[in-house]
């Protein structure tokens, strides 16, 4: 669905934010795009959807250059930025005049999402709190049923119950026809939501793997001591040492996204090397 | 072709723009009517007579160009605000449709609303008093005698400059566009004068860009201009410039990045 090929981009020609970046995203997945503040997550998303143009390489959506912003591409794409804009209209008026641009829009779904988010239908949008506005736009974006739904820091401004609701609704809205991308630096907000993790660090995509594959290769656990363990990465916590170990016995553990992210950006390459080494099937 | 223009989609976009900006446009029309009433009413009150049609023509031209330039400078202000720009650029409509909605509102619809507002105000002022039985007259903008309608052609040129500035600049579009326009107009006039003086190798009295040159030789004053039957071609200058600026503005909207 989204293909980024040898893309280079920078706000000035002297300093490139990305260099020869490659990334492919397919339908049927919820991707979590992780990166530190300033890593370029929002810029990468803007390039992907045609709001910024690569200096070299290409960004394509369904085989079309994103930078052209063709209506046929845009009607299958919904982008929710971190800072949203809502006009001074009621939700009903907004939907009446905007939904028609999205051929797959489902009003019944919108009402369901709004009920779950507890956003009033008759309210004037720009008079709602920021969190309510954001929930409305998330609900609207989901109801457009676009093949590509891109969200930049969608949980910023949401309270804790709304974040829980957000995860539930997002999970229920994923279909085989949809590709969802959620960019965040609040790694915990993506727990039990995404199925593929993409990590942006040092101008590169350092990881683009399904959580299943990660769990197949790595074990996330807590130990009182790391003595005698083949530790790939460890962090102190109040409960002891949180560690990442090679998964040698084939048992699946829950991927601790925050620990994995910290390991990847710590510039200790052992976790990455382990994830990227070729896997050989046992023949006996 | 559907990716460039589609009537149904354009209609939807036009409606969306109208609904979202109705209050602002209604208020702007109110301010325009109020300003014209205040200025022209004050002049009529001070002079104690209804404004004559020549004065009305001057007010018509000044208000049309001034208010049109200000209004057009703000027509794409949403592209200068990051949050609004994301919503505008990612909306599934073509660049041409988005540009056309702004163009229609700031040129065609503005011209109609302005002309109607002007007539409302001038009719009100002229009929507000008996003016000691002085003759009352109302300007006919479309009369071939005064040719006030030529102001629409100048407005087309100013509109094109303003709409280019509205898309090119992200903040304080009106001030920046006006500044660039005045600097360029000053440069053009100065350079035109200097170059023509170099060509004629003498002091010139007047050298207006695209129109005429005036100079004196042995106490004889000469004015060099196009033959009378070709003078109307000068009207093509603002039209061609307007077309160029409109095209540049459209290209700019296609290249807009955030």
TrEMBL record, chain A:
MF-aspect GO terms: ATP binding; ATP hydrolysis activity
InterPro entries, alphabetized: AAA+_ATPase, ABC_transporter-like_ATP-bd, ABC_Transporter_VariousFunc, P-loop_NTPase
Domain ABC transporter: 2-227
A Pfam family that the UniProt record links to this protein: ABC_tran
Entries under Gene3D superfamilies matching the protein: P-loop containing nucleotide triphosphate hydrolases (3.40.50.300)
Keywords linked to the UniProt accession: ATP-binding, Nucleotide-binding, Transport
Record's protein name: ABC transporter related
Lineage of the organism: Bacteria, Pseudomonadati, Bacteroidota, Cytophagia, Cytophagales
From TrEMBL, chain B:
Transmembrane segments: 25-46, 58-79, 100-128, 148-170, 177-196, 233-253
Keyword Transmembrane: yes
Keywords noted in UniProt: Membrane, Transmembrane, Transmembrane helix
Domain of life: Bacteria
Protein name, as recorded: Uncharacterized protein
Species the sequence originates in: Hymenobacter roseosalivarius DSM 11622
């Amino acid at each position: 669905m989204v293909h980024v090929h040898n893309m280079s981009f920078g706000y000035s020609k002297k300093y490139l934010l990305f260099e020869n970046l490659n990334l492919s995203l397919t339908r049927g997945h919820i991707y979590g795009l992780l990166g530190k503040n300033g890593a370029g997550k929002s810029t990468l998303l803007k390039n992907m959807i045609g709001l910024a143009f690569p200096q070299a390489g290409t960004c394509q959506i369904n085989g079309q250059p994103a930078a052209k912003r063709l209506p046929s591409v845009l009607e299958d794409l919904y982008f929710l930025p971190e800072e949203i804009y809502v006009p001074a209209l009621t939700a009903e008026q907004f939907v009446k005049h905007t939904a028609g641009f999205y051929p797959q829009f489902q009003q019944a779904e919108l009402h369901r999402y709004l009920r779950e988010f507890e956003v009033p239908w008759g309210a004037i949008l720009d008079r709602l709190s920021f969190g309510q506005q954001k929930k409305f736009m998330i609900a609207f974006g989901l109801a457009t049923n676009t093949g590509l739904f891109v969200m930049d820091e969608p949980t910023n401004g949401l309270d804790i119950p709304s974040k829980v609701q957000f995860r539930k609704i997002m999970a229920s809205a994923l279909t085989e026809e949809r590709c969802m991308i959620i960019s965040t630096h609040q790694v915990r907000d993506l727990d039990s939501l995404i199925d593929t993790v993409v990590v942006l660090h040092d101008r590169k995509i350092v990881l683009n793997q399904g959580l299943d594959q990660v769990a197949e290769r790595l074990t996330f656990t807590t130990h009182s001591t790391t003595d005698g363990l083949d530790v790939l990465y460890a962090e102190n916590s109040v409960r002891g040492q949180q560690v990442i170990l090679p998964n040698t016995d084939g048992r699946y553990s829950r991927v601790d996204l925050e620990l994995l992210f910290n390991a990847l950006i710590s510039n200790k390459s052992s976790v990455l090397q382990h994830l990227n080494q070729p896997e050989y099937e046992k023949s006996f | 072709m559907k990716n460039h223009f589609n009537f149904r989609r354009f209609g939807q976009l036009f409606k969306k723009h109208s609904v979202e900006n109705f209050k602002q446009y209604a208020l702007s029309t109110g301010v325009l009517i109020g300003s014209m009433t205040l200025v022209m009413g004050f002049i009529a009150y001070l002079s104690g007579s209804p404004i004559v049609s020549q004065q009305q023509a001057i007010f018509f031209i000044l208000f049309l160009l001034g208010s049109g330039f200000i209004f057009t400078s703000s027509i794409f202000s949403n592209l200068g605000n990051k949050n609004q720009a994301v919503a505008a650029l990612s909306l599934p409509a073509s660049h041409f449709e988005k540009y056309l909605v702004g163009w229609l509102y700031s040129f065609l619809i503005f011209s109609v609303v302005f002309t109607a507002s002007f007539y409302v105000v001038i009719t009100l002022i002229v009929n507000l008093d008996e003016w000691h039985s002085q003759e009352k007259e109302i300007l006919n903008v479309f009369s071939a005698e005064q040719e006030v309608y030529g102001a629409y052609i100048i407005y087309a040129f100013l509109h094109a400059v303003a709409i280019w500035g509205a898309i090119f600049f992200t903040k304080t579009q009106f001030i920046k566009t006006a500044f660039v326009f005045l600097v360029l107009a000053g440069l053009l006039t100065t350079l035109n004068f200097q170059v023509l003086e170099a060509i004629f190798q003498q002091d010139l009295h007047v050298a207006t860009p695209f129109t005429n040159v005036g100079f004196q030789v042995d106490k004889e004053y000469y004015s060099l201009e196009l033959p009378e039957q070709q003078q109307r071609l000068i009207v093509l200058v603002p039209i061609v410039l307007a077309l160029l600026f409109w095209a540049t503005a459209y290209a700019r909207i296609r290249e807009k990045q955030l």
